[in-house]
Amino acid sequence: MTDFGISEGSNFDTEFVLSSADLSGVNLVDKNKNNDNILGTENYMSPEIVNGLIERGEGDYWSLGVIIYYIYTRTLPFEGKNKYETFDNITDYKINWEKLQKSKIDPDLFNLVKGFLAYEIKERTCTLRQVKEHKFFKGNNTYIIK
Asked: Which CATH architecture describes the domain 36-144?
C-alpha cells in the first residue's frame, strides 16, 4: 500500500534482492542498543514487525487501520513519548477504542478498523477479499474497491 518513508534516503542506483528468509529471526527493535536505524515509521508498524517476525503484507492492513484511526481522531492510536514507548504501546496493544467510537465514525467502518488493528494476524482483516466482503463496502460503497 505505502512505504511510510521506508525508501527515504535509499540509493536506487544499487540493485538488491531481499527475501523473507533474509529476515528470519531478525529483531528490528533492540531496546538495549541505541539504534536509530529502524526500517519503517514506528507509529504504523504492526506488532509482528516490532517483534521482528516475518509478515506477508498483513502489516499493510494494520497501517491502514492506523491511518483511518488518525483521520477520525487526529491522534495516532499507539503514539508514545518516544519510539520505544510507541513500540511498547503496540506490543502491549494499548489502544483507546472509545476515542474512535466517539469520533462519529460509521459503525461498520469502526468494525473494519478493529479488524485491521486486530493484534493477532489470524483475527486481522488482511486480505482484499475480506475487505470487499465487509459490511462497510456492501451496497453503494462497492464501487470503491475494484
From this structure: Orthogonal Bundle (1.10)
